Amino acid sequence: MHQALDDAAKQFSDPPRMIANRAVQLEGMLAAQGIDESAPELIETLSRAVARADRKEGFGSVCQHYFYLRQQGVGREAALQQLKEARLARPGNRVLHG
């Protein structure tokens, strides 16, 4: 778990403790909606979903976006894909064409 938090802290603009707290909060919010996802799983999957070396954002904002999608009935994989697409579409993100 410590390695996942350290990796996430490199990905997001938040320290490991903040990321852990937000993940536990999200786990509880999802559980209240009948969605079973653990805090460690959320840290790993959300980190992978928005992985970009050139831009950092707050883990809390990613959690909010993910919760909103899941609350609206969007499945896990579709919600993760939408997070990836939303991040790529933000102004300032470079899209490389090969």
Helix and strand pattern: HHHHH
- Round the mean pLDDT to the nearest integer and report it: 86
Could you say which structural class the secondary elements and strand pairing correspond to? mainly alpha
Q: How far is the N terminus from the C terminus?
A: 36 Å
For the biggest sheet, the summary is: none
What is the overall shape? globular
Show unreliable segments.
93-98
Beta-strand percentage range: under 5%
Number of helices: 5
Backbone CA Rg: 13 Å
Q: How many strand units?
A: 0
Question: Residue share in helices?
Answer: 55-70%
Instruction: Give the total of domains.
Output: 1
What does this structure look like?
The chain has about 100 residues and is mainly alpha-helical. The chain has one domain. The protein is built from 5 helices and no strands. Helix 1 crosses helix 2 and helix 2 crosses helix 3. The radius of gyration is 13 Å and the shape is globular. The C terminus is likely disordered.
Using brief descriptors, characterize the structure shown:
98 residues; mainly alpha; globular; disordered C terminus
Gist of the model:
This protein is an all-alpha fold and 98 residues long. Helices cover 66% and strands 0% of the residues. It is globular.
Write the layout of secondary structure elements.
Layout: H1 2-11, H2 16-32, H3 39-49, H4 59-71, H5 76-89
Helix pairs in contact: 1-2, 1-3, 2-3, 2-4, 4-5
